[in-house]
Amino acid sequence: TTVYMYLIGDTVEEAIYEISVARRLAHMQKATNNIKKESQQRSKSSTPALGEAAIDAANSLELQQAPVSKLLVQGKGDGELVPNDDLWSCLFSRAAKSQRQQQQPVVVSTELEAEVGRHLRAEAAENRRG
């Protein structure tokens, strides 16, 4: 069986995927650091590579760390408990990213600046004539 995953840009699903990837990478980094520390204590000659086992461990580590009672709501309206930070990130991370991008200074090419300047001077000359 082949399972395909697709994401639609600028959606909650994409934000959930990004959170998942960030957590997986953090767990993998943590596991890699632990393995490096252990190997340095044993031998200083080799650095272990990340393998499929490390990826699988990172995928399941978060579920292992939290008890099921903290992941699911029991009773009427059963569902998954989501931390507030994750919820806000899923709903508003795109808006925050676009706001940060808008606040970045705009770099204008010298050619474009010259063209706009020429247009404004020509328009000013026409207004003086007319």
From TrEMBL:
Stretches for region Disordered: 32-51
Annotated protein name in UniProt: Uncharacterized protein
